[in-house]
Amino acid sequence: MSVENLSVASSTAAKKGVVIIGAGLAGWHVIDAIRAKDTEVPITLITADSGDRYHKPMLTMAISQNKRASDLVRASGSEAANTAEVTLLANTQVTDIDPVSQTVQVRSTTQSDDTLTTIGYEKMVLAMGAHPIFPKSLPQDLVWHVNHIERFSQLQEKLAAGSQHVAIVGAGMVGTEIAEDLLKAGHKVTLIDLNDAPLSQMLPAKATARIAKAIESQGIQFLGGYQVSAVARVSDDDNNDSEDGEKLQVDYAPLSSDADNTDTQSLEPLIVDHVIASTGLTVDEQLPAAAGVEFDRRTGIVVDAATLRTNAANIYAIGDCMSINGVACRYVAPLRAQAATIADDILGHEHSGYDHKPPMIRLKNKAISVMVTGVPQAAGNWQVKTESDDELIMDLIDDNEAVSATVTIKAPAVPKA
Ligand SMILES: Cc1cc2nc3c(=O)[nH]c(=O)nc-3n(C[C@H](O)[C@H](O)[C@H](O)COP(=O)(O)OP(=O)(O)OC[C@H]3O[C@@H](n4cnc5c(N)ncnc54)[C@H](O)[C@@H]3O)c2cc1C
User: For a disulfide at 29, which of 63, 114, 212, 335, Cβ 3.0-4.6 Å?
Assistant: First the structure.
C-alpha cells in the first residue's frame, strides 16, 4: 500500500487496525517495530507532512556539510510506506479524535475544500511531535525554525545565496548547535539568550561559562542576558545584499533593563538577514483534549511508564509529544525501545514493560565537548568532581545524596600539525 487520497482512505476505514498520527522518527519507529513482529495488521499512517523518512538531528549539521534537505531524506514517504506495507495519508491533518466511536477526522492540507473524512481505529498511536514556541516578539512570518525538514529546506535555500548574518534566538541545544553549523558554513552568527551562557536551563553556571567561552572564541557573537523585544522588516538600500533585498531589525535589551541604565538606551538594534527562533517546544493540546487524554501543558501527553498507554482506551503516545514521569522525552535514543513496547502491547504479546533510562545527551558542537547523563537541571546541588583547564566533571546530587545527573565538558583535542 502507499499514498492514498482521502476518498480511498474512507473505504480503508472499514479495515480499522492501527492508526498512527505523525510520520516523524517516533511514528516510523512504531511502524518498524510492529512490522518486525506482524506483517498483516493493517496500519494507517496519517501525517500533515509528506511522510519522508529523515534523521532530524542532522538538521543542525547539514548546512556546513553542504547537505540539502533532499540529501537527508532516506526514503520518500510513499517509498517507505510501500516497503512497510502501510497506508500513508500524507499531507493530511487529523483535526479531531472521538475516543468513543474510535474514529479520527482528517482533512487534506493541500486541497482547498474543507471536506472532512472519518477513519476508524482499533488502536491509535499519537506521534505528533511538538512544535516551536514563537514568543510575541518573534513573528512567525519573519522568523525561521529548524524543527522540520520542510521549513529547514526553505531556510537552506535562502542561505545558499552567500554569506549572511543570522541571529539565533535561544541558546539551548538546538540554537547552540545550529549557531556553530552556520558559522562553519561561512555565515556571521549572533546567538542571543536570556541567560548569561548557553544551555543555562540544563547545566550549572560553572559548566555553561565554559560553553560560552568556547563558542565565542570560535567567532560566534554571543549576547547573554538579553531579551529580544521585536523583529521587524526594514528595507536597507545601503546594504542590499540579501536575496530579496530585505533585512530584519532585531531590537533587544538587557533582561534586567532599567530606565536609568545608559547602556540600555545606547543599544543599537541588530540588522540581520535572517532570524531563527529556537525558543523551545510545546505540544498542541487540541487532539489530546478531544481524545480525553491526560495532558500536561509543560511536558505533553502523560503515559503509563511501563506500557506507554495513555489514560484513554487503546491510545498510546510516543516521541516529542509525550512525557514519562513528568519529564518530556525529546531525544531519539529511547524511541526504539519505546516503539517495541507499544508494538508488543498493541499486538497483545507478553512483554516485560518499558524501562525508561534517560538517554545520554551529547552536544554536537565541535568547539567544545559536552556530554550529560541523567536528568539535568540548572538549579540544584551540583558538585565538582574534576576541574582542570581541559576538563570539568560535575555531578548533580539529589536530596537522597544520589547522583541524578553528570556533566562532562572537555576542550576539543587540538589537531596535530
Ligand atoms: C534541529 C534538531 C536537532 C536535534 N538533535 C538531536 C540529537 O542530536 N539527539 C537527539 O536525541 N535528539 C535530537 N533532536 C530531537 C529529536 O530529533 C526529536 O526528539 C525527534 O525527532 C522527535 O520525533 P517525533 O516523531 O516525536 O516528532 P516530529 O519529528 O516533530 O514528528 C511529528 C509528526 O507529526 C505530524 N503531525 C503533527 N500534528 C499532526 C496532525 N494534527 N495531523 C497529522 N500529522 C500531524 C507532523 O507532520 C510530523 O510528521 C533534535 C531536534 C531538532 C529539531
Answer: 335
Q: Helix, strand, coil % (nearest 5) of the chain?
A: 25, 30, 45
Q: What angle do CA 24, 53, 276 make, to 5 degrees?
A: 60
Q: What is the pLDDT of residues 120-140, one digit of tens each?
A: 999 999 999 999 999 999 999
48 lines ligand 1 (CB under 6 A): yes
Q: Determine if ligand 1 sits within 6 Å of the CB of residue 176.
A: no
Domains of the chain plus CATH, in order, are 6-130+283-347 (3.50.50.60), 149-277 (3.50.50.60), 361-410 (3.30.390.120)
Question: What is the C-alpha to C-alpha distance for residues 160 and 187, in angstroms, rounded to an integer?
Answer: 10
Asked if 59 and 35 touch (Cβ cutoff 8 Å), the reply is: no
- Which is the closest atom of ligand 1 to the Cα of 23? 49
Which residue among 86, 128, 153, 363 has the greatest number of ligand 1 atoms within 8 angstroms of its CB, and so is best to mutate? Answer: 128
On whether the CB atoms of residues 249 and 269 are closer than 8 A, the answer is yes
The residue contributing the CA closest to ligand 1 atom 27 is: 129
Q: Rounded to whole angstroms, how far apart are CA atoms 34 and 173?
A: 32
The Cα angle at residue 72 between residues 180 and 220, in degrees rounded to 5: 5
Q: Helix, strand, or coil here: 309?
A: strand
Tell me, yes or no, if the pTM score tops 0.85. Answer: yes
Q: Cα–Cα distance between 340 and 344 in angstroms, integer?
A: 6
* Rounded average pLDDT over 397-406: 97
Distance from the alpha carbon of residue 331 to the mean position of ligand 1, in angstroms: 9
Amino acid symbol at 39:
T
CB 105 near ligand 1, within 6 Å: no
Mutate to test the pocket of ligand 1, among 321, 332, 373 (most ligand atoms within 8 A of CB): 332
All three cell numbers of 49, joined, read 507532512
Cell numbers describing residue 194:
536570556
- Cβ atoms < 10 Å from Cβ of 408: 17
Query: What pLDDT was estimated at residue 5?
Result: 47
Cα torsion 123, 129, 134, 139: sign:
negative
Radius of gyration of the chain (CA): 23
Closest CA to 368 of 308, 321, 411: 411
Give the ligand 1 atom nearest the CA of 28: 25
pLDDT of 203-232, one tens digit each?
999 999 999 999 999 999 999 999 999 999
